[in-house]
Structures are given as structure tokens and as C-alpha cells.
Design brief:
heterodimer, A: 548 residues, 3 domains, disordered C terminus, B: alpha+beta, Rossmann fold, 6-stranded mixed sheet, 31% helix, 18% strand, globular
């Protein structure tokens, strides 16, 4: 079900009233919320293409049961790990690892099958072709189950935490089932960990007037972001340009990239706001997912502020277990690369995302090298400079000519641009006055905007067209009627909003919001609803992150 | 306000921190006696009740108005507009309620599969293309060519073709307007020596990437013979300018002036709508295709350029031959052509601005001598129809005349839809464009292709933008009034809402912007146009069967003359400048009805402007030769 839809309004009002009505009946409330969450998952509106049939909910049930059983078994053998009989201890360790492996294979296997099978087949065929073996790879007609990337990570966090001994298993299957399917975050995050949510199910829902207002405020904020800055900009501008970039001018393509950057943030952050707000109305807290990411001063900080629940999940469940930054420098760089590569690849399965993930990962590696370089000058520094000045442009050139099939002149310019960017960012002091801060923010922001080519473009050919458009700037300007004044206002206003101090909204606007009586809020909500209907002709678009 | 030492560095990255260890024990139960403070739900519930009340009003007021209880005023209109759901919308919770409980699933799935018809068509086209590609060689020649018969010989009866059995989705209106084209095509099919049938296809992004044009070209050439790729620009005015079946490489870019920019005051943009400039160093190469069945051979090459008072040199190099330097200097601005004949086969021509002044050039033509079809793709991405009027009329017509084209196809309208145009003005502009085309030569046929369907969201449906049928109707009206044929692309796609269906098909035929087609969609439309053209062709052939051959000449004019190669100044002096080459036609065929071009001028002869119009533009050009 989509948050910005009439269906959700019909759904949420009775769900809230019944949940509050069951305040004194913990079991009934939990069971009701489980039922409501399954209904939310199965009863989506009619969309194009058709939504997945309701019985895909079976995968959710399988995931829930699998992790509950596995973690129970893992915990059962925990006491034997320190058994004086080494054979028993070893058996316990193996058994626990076996159950963990089963959970990992079960969850990640389903995710890999539905999300990555076709890409892996395609990649295999492409790689074979490089070696002169032409293979006609099959393409499976798979429907990606909604939210599988989210609930897989969510339920895995539980099993892994139990295996690491950082969480005792949930004794109640009822509570565990609610943790996995809790509808506000079920289909598009934030990714809630067991350690964050399950303890809340052992307490009464935290319902107070203040939290209700906070929840409502988040819903309002999310609606405006999601529907106006997210859906409307997409429907009115960016979708058209990304569908056929070749038919638009360079300036239009560039503008579409900026617009998409805003749209993507608004879409996802708006959805997360609504999810957090709805959860608060139900008395639960789910984690923040965004922290004004485009105010970041470097790429590492950007990923700490963007889709925080995913990036911190991979940090805690992959980067740290791999050794984090405690090993050798080479090992640390490998850990960094792998983690960021997987952060990128989580978003999609295509060669585009392979490139996108590597760009982000290399930026993180550069970020780390640059900070170490400031502290000492040694072989590590020299290697970095050599890589930046020789290997980076060479790889850029190769990527442009061989993969993106750009002409040699364009590729050469891009390689030179890569060197220039490397040098400028490396030599720019990390700290300084406001101008320095602005420079860092602008560089990080534009890095993000430009790398979004690979994130949004449907395929490599589209990416190539867009990059060529940007490099071979045609100077054709903007065509008449493409952007209306209202759309300009949304783009400029939305972008400006992102760079305002956070407290302007979270404190000042919230203070004003709190003074409004419920009746006015109801009227405001209806006004926003009508505006959304008018802007989108009544067609809420599917949330971008659903496809992940 | 100093930073707290205990606060983490706000610049710290995602992976900069250290791992923290905490252990959480899941235990405890809710306290059933805990009560919520008074007023906990007040704000939310009152807001909720307001929403419910307003929602109720949005349904109640129109109902009362419909029942005659209430006057139908602005308030009712607002309420009617504000209803979030109406009975024509899908039932809420459709995936469960509508799809499963109300049994709408099969119907929705059937509707979803309705697009399979087009998808199957696309799949068949793509499969045919793949099969053809695997053969990886030039098309076999249909039959040996024959000498043109005497005018009194009779036109043979039409011989059926395997493609004839395919159903025609949409026929051409006023198909008689295509008789000159069909007459030329008849001579081509009968394999008369020199019988090349040319079509010059202009359009906006709908034909970008050489999609629809290549699809038609392939169909026509597979049936009538491949007489070459045709016209190609000297650069890419935009990134969509990518032609199939040729290898185009920009070694160093020419500056350019694209017609939609209105950057040439003299209106001399060249046949393809873009003029290229360089004072030296710019270089491109164009070669025959290396894969696929089409465009693999060439025997006749032309470089289209302008002679200008301060013109520099063009260095033309064919394969590994010694380069020929062509001087583009002339007393006045004029259209010129460098022509070369080569043994039939795969070749590469490179054109370089070789200094000595600023060269101004338009494009390259790749052709063969064998009877066949040439279909020029002339996409003007981003162009409103009226941008075609940026051409100087005399220049535009002389370029088309020199091309000896038999058919001009126009497919505009996609951008006009977004321009807030007035239909009267639009029709006037379109009519003017068609008049200019018609004035080239009465034996030049013209075909207007309506724009593709353009969709927009309406609730859960994708509907046609209201402007689409209006533009289609305007184009039909103007085309028929000006004596052109008309093909309704919009109705061929399926009419209202068709772009939505095309965008949902698998393989996808319509792109996500609901305004353009995918590669597969191009092939489907190209095939539809081909079948529509052939339906008219069969009719024509049946109507002229048994008539004297002179009828073909009466309709299409004499067989096109092959322009002779440009001689070098001195055969032993290759690498030196050739002062002049084939200049603009000197016979105004518009008056005489004669398509035969004037003989090419002798080497070193002074270029001669064709008409008062050309002369006047020459004067303009003399003062400004810079875009």
C-alpha cells in the first residue's frame, strides 16, 4: 500500500482507533497490528504494472518463521560454547554457525534470487563475451516482492545479534512477527533492528499528547516532501528526461540531475518521515533515516546522513565484523571498499549500479587516504598521489571509452577532470572558515549529483547518453514550456529548504504547528490531499525505494 | 559557542567510528494498569474527525446537488473535484478486494495482456532483425539491373510479394499524392539502371536516433534494394543524432549551428538542418557499416558544403588514398558539392577543415549506383514545426532539388504540444512548410506523419493528452489541403490511451515519459509505415499495369541523373586544391516540371548563383559568415 493514497487514509484511521482502543489488551493489540500489517502488505492499489499477487506475502512468513526458529536454536546452544568439554563446545559452535548459515542462506538466497539472478546471468554472459564466448543467457520473468530488501535485513539483524550474544531471543513469536511485519516500515524502511524495536514491544506503547503531535508533524512534513517535491517533480520533469535523455538539451539534462537529486531525497526522506510519524501515533519509535545529507562536507559524512539505517546496518554487520579499520591499511581499505560497494549494490542490480557503487566506494577510500595524508607523509601518501594522478585518469579514460563508448576527446576531458577534482579536493584544507565549509559542501553535493547518473539511468546506454550530453555541452538552453514557474519554485524552494538550518523546521515550524488545533490540522491535511490530487492527477507514484 | 569536546566530530564519516558493544535482554511485560493521560488523543482525534467530516461533505454535496436538493454552485464544484475516489476508480485495496474478492484480477490481467498484440509485433520485428544480423553480410541484390525500356513499352503487372499478406494497421490518406513516389519505386523494382528512389524524412525527436527512419529504410531496402545510407551530417547537433548502418567518428569537432537555434541569419543550414564550421583542425569520418545487412557498400560519395567569400579548404580523404583538397572559396555564398566515385564496396571518407579560411559544410551522402531505395533520416531533435521555416526558402528548395528526392516525409508535432500553441497559427506555419516543399518540384511527393500519441496520468489510467487529437487533426487538414498524403501515427498506435498501452507492453514499446518510443516501438511504427506505403504501392501498380512506360516518366520525371565525380585540377596534382566543384542547380525545375539537374559545371568555372533569392542571400552572407 502506498502512504500517499486514499487507500491508506481508509486503512490508517480505523487501525489507529482500534489500536488505541486495545490499549489495555496487549495480546489483542499485537495480534491486531500483525493482521493490519499483513493486510497493508497484501492490499495495495491497482497500479501499472499490476502489483505482485497477495500470496507473495508467503515469503514474508517464511522469513519470519526461519529467523525465529534459527535464532532460537542458536540461543539454545549458547551456554555450551564455554563448556569445559571442548568437543561439546565445538559442537555447539558448529551447530550455532549452521543455524546462522541457514538463516543467511534462506534470507539472502531469496533476496539474491528475486533481485540479482537476472543481473548475474547477464553479467556472466557479458563477461563470457569479453573472452570470446557468446552465450545467450536466459532472462527470468521474476516479480520483485515489495520490500524484500528491507525486511530481509531487518530479520537478519535479529538472528545475527542473537548469534553474537548481543540480544536474547524473543520468547514470543507474536512479538517477533510484529517486529518483522510492522507496517509503517515494512515495505520501504527505515530498516529497524530487532535491538531497537523488540524491547519496545515489552513495554506499553509510548502514547502521550506530545508524541502524537510529533507524529502528526512528521506526517505533514513527509507528505509535502514525498508528494510535492518527490512525486510531482518526477511526474512533471525528471521522468521524461531520464526516459529519453538524447532528446533533451545539455542544460535540461543537467537540470534533471539536480531535480532528481532533490526528488530522490524528498521521496525517500518524505516516506521515512511518514513512517516515523505513523509509528509514533501507534506509540512506537523507529530510527531516523536522514539527516540533511546534502549538507555533508565529505562523502563519508554524506553516507552517515543518507539512508542511515542501511549504511549503519552494513557498517555494524559487515564492516566491523570484517575488522573495520583495526587491521592493516590495505585490509582497512578493502573493508571500506566492500562495505560501500554493497551499500551501492543494495540499491539495484545492473552494471550501472556496479559503476555507481565503485564510484562511491572509491570516494570513501579517497576520503580516508586524504585524512591520513594530512597527519603524515609516507609511502602511503605517495601511493595515493600516484593512484590519483595516474591510475584514476587512466581508469576514467578506460571507463569512458570502453564501457560508456564516449569518443576519445570526451574521454580525455573527463580523465583530466578526474585529475583536477582529485587535486582540488586533496589540496583543499579539511577545516577552515565558512568559505572552506561551503567549498566542501558544494564539492560533495556535486559529486553526489553527478554520480546519480548511474543511479537513475535505466541502463548503461542511457548513462552514456547523459554523460556525453553533459560533457559535449550543446548550449541549446531550455525549451519553452518544459518547466512551469510552479515547478521552478518547487525546485528552487526545495533545494533551498534542504540547506536551511535544521532547527528552522524541527523547532520553529514545529512550535507553530503545535499551536494549531486538531480541526485546523484536519483541514490542512485535506487541503494537502486536494493539492496532491491536482498536482498528480490522482496518481500517486510508487515509492522509488519500493523497487529496491 | 565552542564545540563540546565530548561531542563526536560532525564531519566524521560513516565508517570512522568504533564498534560499540551492548547486550539487550528481551524481558518484561506491559503494565496493564497503566493509563494514558487525559488529552492524549485529543488533537489527533479531532483532526481525524475533521478529515472524515470534510470527506463526507465532498460526497454529500454533489449527491444533494445531483438529487436537486442543492443548487449546483461553486461549493459543490469544489466538493466534486475534491472527492478522492469516484466509482470509476478502482476499488480501494484493489490487490486483495478487487483482484481476488471481486474477481477483477482476470480482467486486469487480460487488459494488461492486451498490449501483447503490439509486443508480439515488436518481438517478431526484433527476431527478424536478430536473424538478419546473424547473416552479417550485405543484402543480396534482388535481380540484375536492366536498361530503361522504351517509353512505349508496357508496365508489367505487379508481382505479389511475401509481405503483401501482412495486415495493414492504418492506410495512408490521400494516397494518390504519392503517385510520383510510387512511379519512381516502380522503376526501382523493375531494376532499371540508375533507378534510385529517395525519400528525405524530417521530424522531431520521434525519429531521433534514426529509429523509425532506419526501420522504414531497412524494410524498403530489403524489398527494393539497398542504394546506400543516404545523407549524414558532419557532426552531431545533439546526442540523439546517431545513424544506424554507418560508422561515424568525430576526431575533432566542427563548430555547429543547428536550425532550432535560429543562429544563421542567412537561413543556409544545409539539407540536414545543421551547418558546421571550422577554420582548421576539425575532422570527421564516415564509413560504411561493419555489421548488419544494410549500408555495407557504397560507390558514390558526396560532400555537401557552402562556397563562401572567405572559405577555407576542405581536405577529403577516401580510404587510404591521397587526400584531395577542396577550396570552398567563392565570390558569394552558394551551395556546393564534392562528388567522388569509388569501386563498390566498403569505404571510409574523412573530411577535415584544412585551414586557409573558415569552411562551412553540411554533410555527406553515401550511395550506390544500383537500383534501390535511399531513406534519409533528418531528425531535428527538439524542433517545433515552425523551426523548419528558419531555412532560407531558396536554399532549402535547392538542397532538396539537388538531392533529387522523390518523397519528403514530415513527422513533427511532439514538441509543438508543449508550446501552448494556437492551432490557427500552427496550421498556417505547417501549411507554409508544406508549400515550400511542394514548390521544390511538382513531381516531389510529400507525406505527413502525425505525431505519436502522448500520454499523461489520470488516476490510475494513462490517457492521451487532450492536445494530441487536435494537433493530429490540424496536420491532417493542412496535409490534405496542400496535396500531401497523410498517415495517422496516433490512430495506428491505437488512438486514445495507446501510449499507456505501449509503455506497459513487454517488450516495452513506449518510453516512460509517455511521449517517445523505445527501440522496439520504432521498429513497430516503421513496419506499420512500410505496410501502409506498400498497400498504396500495390494499388498504384495495379492501376498502371499495362500502361506505357512513359506514364512513369510523366509521374516521376526522367530517371535521376548521376552527378559526375569532381575532377581534380590536375590528375597528377592530388593533394592540391580543387577550386570548384558541382555548384547549385541552374535550372528552376519548379517552373518546368523537369527534375533533371543541370550538367555539372566544368572544373575551375566560376560558381553561379541560381536565382534572385540565392543572389540576395549571397550578399547577406558576405557580411556575416560566422554563426
Amino acid at each position: 500500500m502506498l502512504f500517499v493514497s486514499f487507500d491508506f487514509l481508509l486503512f490508517i484511521i480505523p487501525v489507529l482507533l482500534i489500536t488505541w482502543g486495545l490499549a489495555q489488551a496487549a495480546v489483542a493489540r499485537t495480534l491486531f497490528l500483525i493482521g493490519a500489517s499483513y493486510f497493508f502488505y497484501m492490499a495495495g492499489p491497482l497500479t501499472e504494472p499490476l502489483p505482485a499477487p497477495w500470496y507473495y506475502v508467503g515469503l514474508l512468513v517464511v522469513s519470519t518463521v526461519l529467523d525465529f526458529v534459527c535464532s532460537g536454536k542458536i540461543h539454545r546452544y549458547a551456554p555450551y560454547l564455554d563448556h569445559p568439554d571442548r568437543a561439546k563446545a565445538e559442537l555447539a559452535r558448529r551447530t550455532r554457525n549452521g543455524w546462522l548459515l541457514l538463516s543467511l542462506i534462506g534470507n539472502l538466497g531469496l533476496l539474491a534470487y528475486f533481485k540479482y539472478t537476472n543481473f548475474l546471468l547477464e553479467a556472466f554472459g557479458d563477461i563470457a563475451a569479453v573472452f570470446g564466448v557468446e552465450m545467450l543467457m536466459p532472462h527470468l520473468q521474476l516479480i520483485l516482492p515489495v520490500g524484500i530488501s528491507f525486511y530481509t535485513f531487518q530479520s537478519l539483524s535479529y538472528t545475527i545479534d542473537v548469534w553474537r550474544g548481543r540480544l536474547t531471543p524473543e520468547p514470543s513469536f507474536r512479538r517477533f512477527a510484529l517486529f518483522v511485519v510492522f507496517f509503517p516500515q515494512l515495505v520501504a524502511g527505515p530498516i529497524v533492528r530487532a535491538s531497537e524495536f523488540l524491547p519496545q514491544l515489552h513495554r506499553r506503547p509510548n502514547l502521550r499528547a506530545e508524541r502524537m503531535r510529533e507524529g502528526l508533524f512528521r506526517i505533514f512534513k513527509g507528505l509535502v516532501k514525498k508528494a510535492i517535491l518527490g512525486d510531482w517533480i518526477a511526474a512533471s520533469f525528471t521522468d521524461a528526461v531520464f526516459a529519453n535523455p538524447g532528446t533533451y538539451s545539455s542544460l535540461e539534462v543537467l537540470l534533471a540531475l539536480y531535480a532528481f537529486t532533490l526528488q530522490l531525497y524528498a521521496d525517500f526522506a518524505g516516506y521515512s518521515d511518514i513512517a516515523i510519524g505513523v509509528a509514533r501515533l501507534l506509540g512506537y519509535e523507529i530510527p531516523e533515516n536522514f539527516d540533511r545529507p546534502h549538507q555533508a562536507k565529505n562523502v563519508g559524512e554524506f553516507w552517515r546522513r543518507w539512508h542511515m539505517t542501511l549504511s549503519t546496518w552494513l557498517r555494524d554487520y559487515l564492516f566491523f565484523p570484517l575488522g573495520g579499520s583495526r587491521g592493516s591499511r590495505a585490509r582497512t581499505y578493502f573493508n571500506l571498499w566492500l562495505t560501500m560497494f554493497l551499500v551501492g549494490m543494495w540499491h539495484g542490480a545492473s552494471w550501472n549500479f556496479v559503476i555507481y557503487s565503485n564510484i562511491q566506494a572509491l570516494a570513501i577510500l579517497f576520503n580516508r587516504w586524504n585524512r591520513i595524508r594530512e597527519r603524515s607523509f609516507d609511502v602511503h601518501t605517495l601511493i595515493g598521489w600516484a593512484l590519483g594522478l595516474v591510475v584514476l585518469p587512466a581508469v576514467s579514460y578506460w571507463l569512458c571509452t570502453a564501457t560508456l563508448r564516449l569518443d576519445h576527446e570526451t574521454s580525455l576531458w573527463l580523465a583530466l577532470a578526474a585529475i583536477a577534482t582529485f587535486v582540488v579536493v586533496a589540496l583543499l584544507p579539511r577545516r577552515g572558515g565558512w568559505l572552506n565549509t561551503v567549498m566542501h559542501i558544494l564539492l560533495t553535493f556535486h559529486f553526489t549529483v553527478l554520480s546519480r547518473v548511474f543511479f537513475r539511468a535505466d541502463d548503461l546506454d542511457t548513462s552514456r547518453q547523459m554523460i556525453a550530453k553533459l560533457v559535449e555541452f550543446d548550449g541549446l538552453g531550455l525549451r519553452e514550456g518544459l518547466l512551469t514557474p510552479w515547478l521552478w519554485a518547487a525546485l528552487i524552494g526545495g533545494m533551498a529548504y534542504h540547506f536551511t538550518p535544521k532547527r528552522w523546521v524541527d523547532v520553529v515550524a514545529y512550535r507553530v504547528f503545535c499551536k494549531l488545533p486538531g480541526v485546523v490540522l484536519g483541514m490542512l491535511l485535506c487541503a494537502i490531499g486536494v493539492l496532491i490530487m491536482k498536482l498528480l492527477s490522482g496518481a500517486p507514484r510508487a515509492f522509488i525505494y519500493f523497487q529496491f | 559557542m565552542g564545540q563540546d569536546r565530548n561531542q563526536p566530530d560532525p564531519r566524521r564519516g560513516l565508517l570512522d567510528g568504533e564498534e560499540s558493544h551492548t547486550r539487550i535482554v528481551l524481558e518484561g511485560r506491559e503494565d496493564p494498569n497503566e493509563v494514558y493521560p487525559t488529552g492524549t488523543f485529543r488533537t489527533v482525534v479531532s483532526g481525524m474527525m475533521t478529515v472524515i467530516a470534510l470527506l463526507g461533505l465532498s460526497y454529500l454535496l454533489p449527491t444533494l446537488a445531483d438529487a436537486g436538493v442543492l443548487a449546483d454552485g461553486p461549493l459543490v464544484a469544489v466538493a466534486r473535484d475534491a472527492r478522492p475516489w469516484t466509482p470509476k476508480d478502482p476499488v480501494p485495496f484493489w490487490n486483495l478486494v478487487g483482484r481476488e474478492l471481486l474477481g477483477e484480477g482476470s480482467q486486469a490481467e487480460a487488459e494488461a495482456s492486451a498490449v501483447d498484440e503490439f509486443a508480439a509485433l515488436a518481438a517478431a520485428e526484433v527476431a527478424a532483425e536478430s536473424e538478419a544480423d546473424t547473416e552479417a553480410g550485405p543484402l543480396p541484390e534482388p535481380e540484375p539491373e536492366v536498361a530503361p525500356p522504351d517509353p512505349v513499352d508496357l508496365i508489367p503487372a505487379y508481382r505479389p510479394h511475401p509481405d503483401d499478406s501482412a495486415p495493414v494497421e492504418r492506410t495512408i490518406e490521400n494516397v494518390d499524392a504519392l503517385k510520383p513516389f510510387y512511379a519512381a519505386l516502380t522503376r526501382t523494382e523493375l531494376r532499371f539502371s540508375g533507378a534510385i528512389t529517395r525519400a528525405t524524412h524530417y521530424g522531431d525527436s520521434a525519429i531521433g536516433n534514426d529509429g523509425i527512419t532506419a526501420a522504414i529504410r531497412h524494410k524498403m531496402q530489403a524489398r527494393f534494394g539497398d542504394a546506400g545510407h543516404g545523407f549524414h551530417l558532419l557532426g552531431r547537433p545533439n546526442m540523439s543524432y546517431r545513424h544506424r548502418d554507418v560508422e561515424f567518428d568525430i576526431k575533432s569537432r566542427f563548430s555547429q549551428c543547428y536550425i532550432i537555434q535560429g543562429c544563421r541569419p542567412d537561413g543556409h543550414y544545409g539539407l540536414g538542418g545543421t551547418t558546421f564550421y571550422s577554420t582548421g583542425g576539425a575532422e570527421i569520418s564516415l564509413a560504411t557499416g561493419r555489421k548488419g545487412n544494410f549500408g555495407r557498400k557504397v560507390s558514390h560519395l558526396e560532400v555537401w558544403y557552402a562556397g563562401t567569400p572567405r572559405g577555407g579548404n576542405l581536405r577529403v580523404k577516401i580510404d587510404r588514398d591521397e587526400p584531395i583538397v577542396v577550396s570552398t572559396r567563392s565570390e558569394a555564398l552558394e551551395d556546393r558539392w564534392f562528388v567522388a566515385e569509388v569501386p563498390e564496396g566498403a569505404h571510409e571518407i574523412s573530411v577535415r577543415a584544412a585551414g586557409g579560411g573558415r569552411v562551412r559544410a553540411y554533410g555527406i551522402v553515401l550511395e550506390r549506383k544500383t537500383p534501390g531505395v535511399v531513406w534519409d533520416g533528418m531528425s531535428q531533435i527538439g524542433a517545433f514545426t515552425r523551426r523548419m521555416l528558419n531555412f532560407d526558402e531558396g536554399h532549402f528548395q535547392s538542397q532538396l532539388r539537388r538531392r533529387q528526392t522523390n518523397l519528403v516525409v514530415l513527422m513533427f508535432g511532439g514538441n509543438d504540444m508543449y508550446a501552448g500553441l494556437k492551432l490557427d497559427v500552427y496550421k498556417k506555419d505547417y501549411g507554409e512548410l508544406l508549400r515550400r516543399v511542394r514548390a521544390v518540384n511538382p513531381k516531389l511527393a510529400c507525406l505527413v506523419m502525425a505525431p505519436l500519441d502522448h500520454g499523461e496520468h489520470d488516476g490510475n489510467r494513462i490517457v492521451t493528452r487532450p492536445i494530441v487529437p487536435k494537433i493530429v487533426e490540424a496536420q491532417r487538414e493542412v496535409a490534405l489541403a496542400e496535396g500531401c498524403a497523410f498517415w495517422d501515427s496516433y490512430q495506428a498506435m491505437g488512438g486514445p490511451g495507446s501510449m499507456g498501452r505501449w509503455a506497459r507492453s513487454n517488450p516495452r514499446l513506449g518510453s516512460g515519459d509517455l511521449a517517445h518510443l523505445t527501440h522496439h516501438g520504432h521498429k513497430v511504427i516503421g513496419s506499420m509505415v512500410y505496410r501502409a506505403l506498400m498497400a498504396g504501392y500495390i494499388e498504384f501498380r495495379q492501376s498502371v499495369a499495362g500502361s506505357p512506360q512513359a506514364e512513369l516518366e510523366r509521374l516521376a520525371g526522367p530517371l535521376p541523373q548521376r552527378y559526375p565525380p569532381t575532377p581534380a585540377k590536375d590528375p597528377t596534382d592530388t593533394g592540391k586544391a580543387v577550386d570548384t566543384v558541382d555548384t547549385v542547380d541552374t535550372v528552376d525545375t519548379a517552373d518546368t516540371g523537369n527534375t533533371e539537374p543541370a550538367p555539372a559545371p566544368q572544373p575551375n568555372s566560376a560558381p553561379t548563383p541560381t536565382s534572385a533569392q540565392s543572389t540576395s542571400t549571397t550578399e547577406t552572407d558576405g557580411s556575416s559568415d560566422v554563426p
